[in-house]
Amino acid sequence: MPRESYQTAKFMIVDDEIANIRVLEHLLDAWDCPNVQSTTDPTQALALYSQFQPDIVLLDLMMARLDGFGVMQQLQTVIPEHDYLPILVLTADVTPEIKHRALALGAKDFVTKPFDIAELSLRIQNLLETRFLHRQLQNQNAILEGRVEERTYQLKIAEIETIECLALAGEYRDDDTGQHAQRVGITAARLALHIGMSPPEAELIQRAAPLHDVGKIGIGDHILLKPARLTMEEFDAMKAHCAIGHQILSRHHTPLLQRAADIAHCHHERWDGSGYPQGLRGEDIPIEGRLVAIADVFDALTHERPYKKAWPLEEAATEIQNQSGRQFDPRLAETFGSHLESICDFSLYPES
Ligand SMILES: [Fe+2]
Question: Is pLDDT at 184 greater than 50 in this prediction?
Fold first, then answer.
């Protein structure tokens, strides 16, 4: 009978007449199909299936204790949802009613007893061919899904790396390590987790927050690097970095860049409405902007700048509380103060 690949197929035979099993085993042996397991006890069929994982089941229908219908009912509970397991029913009784019932329970084909050997061989071949094609298709699907997953992962990494480069470019003139930007991302993400945001949302904020000052690319060095407090005019010019950052980032539509655009635009808004560039108030300020506002100010206070020394951590933490309800969202300020040690990675604050 079979083509070579069928010789590797695993055959399971369930028939309560040992003589019938011997006939089938003899035929399969003659066809060089060595992987055969049989049982005359239909109540053992389920266990045999689970242990043997056959490619095809040759199933007698009329058996004592548990008939072929009962065996098929049991098998349906363990056959994987997307698997194609051919069940070839062997029966002397092929009335339409029997056929309909067997088909409904998962039978794929019938062979009447006594067997026509040629017919039996051809029906087994057909069923196994379908089984193997189905499995081949599933393997190909799995390979394709794996490739799509790998490609998606590579694209995500590429996006993250591009954004890290962009953040570094934005910070390069006054922090050539980009550490401020990274610290702000980490602190904002930890604060986000403490107020109950999901880990994926917090991760998005961690990745997006380092771009908060990317608009500084458009600010002149005489303002950005001035080793003294800015004049009112200079400060007004500096404020433009929010709109510039938003312009750079808002043309793109990935969730990461959308968050980054919002953060760039809103991280200098203040809870009491006195911030810039839009003068948004309270919860009208996007939550990611409110989170980064605290992380940015805390990090700026605790690190040296051209015009000031680093503040001690305690004084900076007190300043965040002093600005609660003015500059900062009171709920975020309170959470920040209550969980300072787990939100701020003090190993990242060497100057304090
Ligand atoms: Fe800023």
Answer: yes
